[in-house]
Amino acid sequence: MIDLRSDTVTRPSAAMLEAMHHAATGDDVYRDDPTVNALEVEAARLSGKAAALFFPTGTQANLVALLSHCQRGDEYIVGQQAHNYKYEAGGAAVLGSIQPQPVLAAADGTLPLDVVAAAIKPDDIHFARTRLLSLENTHHGKVLPLEYLQQAWQLTREKQLALHIDGARIFNAVVAQGVTLEEIARYCDTLTICLSKGLGTPVGSLLCGDREYIERARRWRKMVGGGMRQAGILAAAGLYALEHNVARLQEDHDNAAWLAEQLQDLGLEVTEQHTNMVFVRVPVQQITALSDWMSQRDVLFSVSAVTRLVTHLDVDRAALQTLVNHWRDFLHQ
Ligand SMILES: *Cc1c(COP(=O)(O)O)cnc(C)c1O
């Protein structure tokens, strides 16, 4: 099976499973799981934050991040297409009574700062209190420029907002920009990281921030059911991933660029290619036929008018060549 639906489909490698098998465990609710503690220390070190907290999912990490920043009746400014606005079932509003203020992202994935500034509500009893700016990096594969992050950081300092980065794919940005995580994370108060996408673990996300904030987050995590016990087996996968699966993300980016070129050579219109994502236009009348053609040949991706293909550690260049061959055959049948 060649699966390009998402980088969430990556499976733990034999070496990762071996690391999980040998993990020392304790009870993380009592804070004595040594492997979870080691992963949190490592995430704090890498991000340059004082503390970190391990979560089963990125959705829960983002929810707890918002709950720990905002009170009932506060609001966060967020991208119209951002995961923690659009794809998390409205959790902040449902469970936190936190109002989102979505704004449209620019073509480069940034939220224009003049638009953000205009969306900040004055201190007036008519309005929700604007508390937080939430950015997504990478956003649909797009890496937010460091210069932009610095300006966003500056704006939030002036306006007394907190700045959160949903960094589900932040290590793709790290590799693409050739910087350390700390060089990006210095421009945010808090940051979430997914271990279960391109980094290849079965589950797991991290929230990084200052000590007091992470203590608050720990209580919210318990409340929403995220306090896990012998979670060291999962944290071991995370530690393995941070050590072995970060630098190799470059391969995924190179593969995505290669795939984009090959699809263009077939005469297809590649609308965008950034980091590990390729977007290609498929004529509406071909959608069903292409989808069937590919799934009959054990190739999976979600075919739509603008089709997204995501490269990751379980698809190598040979698998991508197979996909290209099938697409060529489809066009020439
Ligand atoms: C995948 C993702 C998340 C978290 O997703 P989970 O499936 O809950 O781990 C959060 N933000 C972004 C941008 C994502 O792509």
Spatial arrangement of strands, main beta sheet: 2-8-7-6-5-3-4
CATH class term of the largest domain? Alpha Beta
* Quaternary structure classification: single chain
Strand content: 15-25%
What ligands can be seen in this structure?
pyridoxal-5'-phosphate
Indicate the percent of residues in helices. Answer: 40-55%
Extended strand count: 12
In the CATH scheme, what's the topology name of the largest domain?
Answer: Aspartate Aminotransferase, domain 2
Please report the number of helical segments. 14
Biggest sheet statistics: 7 strands, mixed
| SSE topology string | EHHEHEHHEHEHEHHEEHHHEEHEEH
Low-confidence runs: none
Overall mean pLDDT stands at 98
Shape: globular
Radius of gyration, whole Å: 21 Å
Quick one: CATH superfamily of the largest domain?
Type I PLP-dependent aspartate aminotransferase-like (Major domain)
Class inferred from helices and paired strands: alpha/beta
CATH architecture title of the largest domain: 3-Layer(aba) Sandwich
Structural domain tally: 2
N- to C-terminal separation?
A: 22 Å
Task: Please summarize what this structure is.
This protein has 333 residues and is an alpha/beta fold.
